Amino acid sequence: MTWLRALLAAGLSVLMPGAGHALVRDWLRAVGFAGLFLAASAILLPIDQVAALGPITSSGDLSKYATVMTEETGQMTQFFLSFIALFAAIDATFRALGFPPGGTDDDGATCPHCGKEIDEELEFCHWCTTRLDPDPETADDGPVRP
């Protein structure tokens, strides 16, 4: 299920950067990648030619937009927008697989199932609800009954 979610996040990010992060519920990164892509599109794309085409009402209109995107933009613009989409897809994939954004932290206990940091006092992981086995060295067996 995790791999399927990661592939879906990557595919959505290729279509629209930030959509894969929204699937993973990483809202700040979703807004960041979507904002970066839309800002770069507004700056780099030939808006006057796109605006002259009007609203999209059929699949034929969509092909006109694709023609403007491929023929009327330079290679550097296409590379830059593709780079943003590819970077967003890679980042969304790693986030969906559960990798932390800053690398690994060895400070606290982690869940053996999902790998995320957990509260050592709880008997379950609050991220994936996996039941945790108590540590035999620190476990208190309670009062001894005869």
From TrEMBL:
Keywords: Membrane, Transmembrane, Transmembrane helix. It comes from the Archaea. InterPro entries: DUF7575 (IPR055997). The chain crosses the membrane at residues 32-56, 77-97. Residues 106-133 form the DUF7575 domain. The keyword Transmembrane applies. Pfam families: DUF7575. This is DUF7575 domain-containing protein. It comes from Natrinema salifodinae.
